[in-house]
Design a protein that fits this description.
Elements: E1 4-7, H1 17-30, H2 37-43, H3 48-59, H4 65-83, H5 90-97, E2 102-106, H6 111-120, E3 129-131, H7 144-153, E4 160-164, H8 167-176, E5 179-182, E6 198-199, H9 203-213
Parallel strand pairs: 1-2, 1-4, 2-3, 4-5, 5-6
Length: about 220
């Protein structure tokens, strides 16, 4: 039975990939190097420090991953506070399944940013579990964060549907044993989502698909 929906956050719940890309492109420009799309893809869904390690290595920057993370965090705190926007359909899908299924957030972002998002959008009370990358040893595409979220929900992975916008996230959800709905964004639409159980055009489409399954279980 489907008992829970687990939402990725960046690029899935909120239009934050654009904000991260802007912050990271500005960082690259300061060092006079070009930021390629392939680097951004590899960073998606990973733990912040893992993503910035990829960033520093790919661009050959003369700073550490920790220094790069501190630079990005400073910019992203301001951007989230002033430019945060929910993805189309977010509030609708949350309201639709709030009393029917357990809901969780499972994000590669740090807890500080997760707290900012759920509080600014006033949706904290919708979720039974809020899982950030804090305390997670291996970020997506490793399944650790999804396995931990399922454990906190007290459901098996087979009882949980994952909503993801990146290939790394889809891989993590599938490796954990969950069923996964991919919702590619304009930034991830060229990635490989063939391992997903279903590919939706947006959160409204994903909601319709879940509705079709619920009466059957």
């Amino acid at each position: 039975m489907i008992k829970a929906l687990i939402f990725d956050m960046d690029g899935l719940m909120i239009d934050s990939e654009r904000l991260y890309f802007e912050a990271e492109e500005n960082m690259a420009n300061k060092f006079g190097v070009e930021l390629r799309e392939e680097t951004l893809w590899k960073m998606m869904g990973t733990k912040p420090i893992e993503g910035l390690a990829i960033f520093v290595k790919d661009l050959g920057l003369p700073i550490t991953a920790r220094e790069a993370l501190e630079m990005r965090n400073k910019v992203m705190r301001k951007k989230l506070q002033t430019e945060l926007e929910a993805m189309p359909g977010l509030f609708h899908i949350l309201d639709t399944f709030f009393t029917r299924l357990k809901l969780a957030v499972c994000t590669g972002a740090q807890e500080e940013f997760l707290d900012i998002v759920v509080d600014l959008l006033n949706i904290r009370e919708k979720f039974d579990v809020l899982q950030s990358s804090d305390g997670i040893e291996k970020g997506k595409p490793d399944p650790e964060i999804y396995l931990k979220t399922c454990e906190k929900l007290n459901f098996s992975p087979q009882e949980c549907f994952v909503l993801e916008d990146s290939a790394n996230g889809v891989t993590a959800g599938k490796k954990a044993g969950c069923r996964v709905i991919a919702i590619p964004s304009e930034y991830t639409q060229s990635q490989d989502f063939t391992s997903a159980d279903f590919i939706a055009s947006d959160l409204f489409h994903a909601e319709q698909h879940i509705h079709k399954l619920l009466p059957l279980i």
